[in-house]
C-alpha cells in the first residue's frame, strides 16, 4: 500500500512537456557509476530522470511495458511494445518513473529526460536514439571491478537463451556456456559484462559520448566537457557543482571510504577508487577473467591495466603524476 501511494505521488509530481530538444539515453552496466552520471546530467535545466525503465523485476514496469521476462525483452518481436512504452514515457503520459520530488534538483515541469538503463536493450540503442529524438552516452567500467561489486547478473541467462544470442558466433556461444556452467563467480560476472557490452560497443557511432568510470573519477572535468558537447547540455557549471554530491547508490551501497573519496576534494587519493578491486583478486584470477574479453574481441580493458584503452580515454591537458597515469594503454 505504501509503495502504491509513493508511485501515485511520483506520477502526479511532474508535468512533462517535450520542447524538441533531445532526450538522453545513458547506457551502462550495474555498479559502474551510472546513477552518479545520471544525476550529473539531471542537474541541467529542464531535465527529469527515468531510472531503469526496463527493470523487469519491478511489477509496475512489467505492467506498463507488457513484457514479463528477460527472454521476451530481448526477442526480436518486442519492438512494438518497446516503441509504445518509450513513446508514452517520452510524451509524459507515464509518470511512475519520475524522480523523487523531495530530492534536488526536482522540477515540477520538465522538457527533457535522461533515461538510465543498465539491463535491457543494449542491442537497440541506435534504434532508441533515432526513434525518440535522443543522444547517447555509454558508460564503461573495468569488468572485474563491476563483477566483484555486483551481487548477481539477472540478464546473464537471457543473453544466451533469447534472440540476443544471434549477435555471437557458434564458437563464442560454446565458450560462454562453458563459463556459465563451470566458471567461477568472478568469471561469470565478467562473462555477463562481455555479453552486455560487446554488442553496443560494436554498434557505437561517432555521435555517442563514450566515457569511463575511471575517467569520471579521476578527471571529471574532461567528462563534463564531452557530455556538454555530445548531449547538447547548456550549463556545465551545474555538473561541476554537483560532483561532490553523492548519488543514492553511493549513499547506500558504497563503503564509507568510497563515499568520502568521491565527495571530498582530495584528488590525489582518488586513484584508489579505480585500483581497489586489485586487493580482492589474485593475479591468476585477473588473468583468467580478462581472457574472456578476448573471446568476444573486446580490447577496451586489458590484463594488467586498471584504466581503459587510450582510444576511449577523452583528450586531456594533464593527468595525475602517479601510478594510475602510467596504466593508460593504447
State the gist of this model.
The chain is an alpha/beta fold and 330 residues long. The protein has 17 helices and 7 strands. The strands form 2 sheets. It has a 5-stranded parallel β-sheet with strand order 3-5-2-6-7, with helices on both faces.
Describe the secondary structure blueprint for this structure.
Blueprint: H1 2-12, E1 15-16, E2 23-27, H2 34-42, E3 47-51, H3 59-65, H4 70-73, H5 79-91, E4 109-110, E5 112-117, H6 125-131, E6 134-140, H7 143-149, H8 156-161, H9 170-182, H10 185-203, E7 209-212, H11 213-218, H12 220-230, H13 236-241, H14 248-253, H15 256-263, H16 271-275, H17 283-295
Parallel strand pairs: 1-4, 2-5, 2-6, 3-5, 6-7
Helix pairs in contact: 7-10, 10-17
Largest sheet: 5 strands, parallel
Helix content: 40-55%
Summed up, the domain count is 1
Total of DSSP H or I helical runs spanning 4+ residues: 17
Overall geometry = globular
**CATH topology (fold) name:** Rossmann fold
Task: Tell me how many strands there are.
Answer: 7
Which class of secondary structure composition applies to the elements?
Answer: alpha/beta
Taking pLDDT < 50 over at least 5 consecutive residues as the criterion, the unreliable ranges are: 317-330
How would you characterize this protein structure?
This protein has 330 residues and is of the alpha/beta class. Strands 3-5-2-6-7 form a five-stranded parallel β-sheet, sandwiched between helices. Helices cover 46% and strands 9% of the residues. The chain contains 17 helices and seven strands. The protein is globular. It has one domain: Rossmann fold (3-Layer(aba) Sandwich).
Amino acid at each position: 500500500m505504501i509503495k502504491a501511494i509513493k508511485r501515485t505521488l511520483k506520477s502526479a509530481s511532474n508535468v512533462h512537456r517535450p520542447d524538441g530538444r533531445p532526450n538522453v539515453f545513458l547506457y551502462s552496466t550495474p555498479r559502474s557509476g551510472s546513477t552518479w552520471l545520471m544525476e550529473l546530467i539531471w542537474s541541467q535545466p529542464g531535465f527529469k530522470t527515468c531510472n531503469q525503465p526496463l527493470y523487469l523485476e519491478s511489477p509496475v514496469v512489467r505492467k506498463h511495458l507488457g513484457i514479463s521476462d528477460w527472454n521476451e525483452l530481448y526477442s526480436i518481436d518486442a519492438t512494438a511494445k518497446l516503441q509504445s512504452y518509450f513513446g508514452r514515457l517520452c510524451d509524459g503520459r507515464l509518470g511512475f518513473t519520475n524522480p523523487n520530488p523531495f530530492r534536488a534538483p526536482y522540477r515540477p515541469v520538465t522538457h527533457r529526460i535522461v533515461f538510465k538503463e543498465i539491463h535491457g536493450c543494449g542491442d537497440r540503442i541506435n534504434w532508441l536514439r533515432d526513434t525518440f529524438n535522443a543522444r547517447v552516452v555509454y558508460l564503461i567500467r573495468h569488468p572485474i571491478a563491476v563483477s566483484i561489486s555486483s551481487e548477481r547478473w539477472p540478464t546473464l541467462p537471457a543473453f544466451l537463451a533469447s534472440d540476443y544470442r544471434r549477435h555471437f558466433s557458434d564458437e563464442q556461444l560454446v565458450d560462454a556456456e562453458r563459463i556459465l556452467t563451470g566458471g567461477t563467480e568472478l568469471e561469470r560476472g565478467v562473462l555477463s559484462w562481455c555479453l552486455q557490452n560487446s554488442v553496443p560497443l560494436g554498434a557505437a557511432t561517432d555521435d555517442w559520448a563514450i566515457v569511463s568510470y575511471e575517467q569520471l573519477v579521476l578527471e571529471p572535468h574532461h567528462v563534463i566537457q564531452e557530455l556538454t558537447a555530445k548531449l547538447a547540455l547548456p550549463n556545465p557549471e551545474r555538473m561541476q557543482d554537483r560532483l561532490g554530491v553523492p548519488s543514492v547508490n553511493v549513499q547506500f551501497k558504497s563503503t564509507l571510504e568510497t563515499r568520502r573519496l568521491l565527495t571530498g576534494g582530495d584528488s590525489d587519493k582518488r586513484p584508489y577508487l579505480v585500483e581497489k578491486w586489485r586487493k580482492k583478486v589474485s593475479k591468476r584470477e585477473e588473468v583468467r577473467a580478462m581472457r574472456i574479453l578476448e573471446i568476444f574481441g573486446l580490447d577496451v580493458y586489458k590484463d594488467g591495466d586498471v584504466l581503459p584503452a587510450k582510444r576511449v580515454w577523452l583528450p586531456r591537458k594533464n593527468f595525475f603524476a602517479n601510478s594510475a597515469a602510467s596504466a593508460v594503454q593504447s
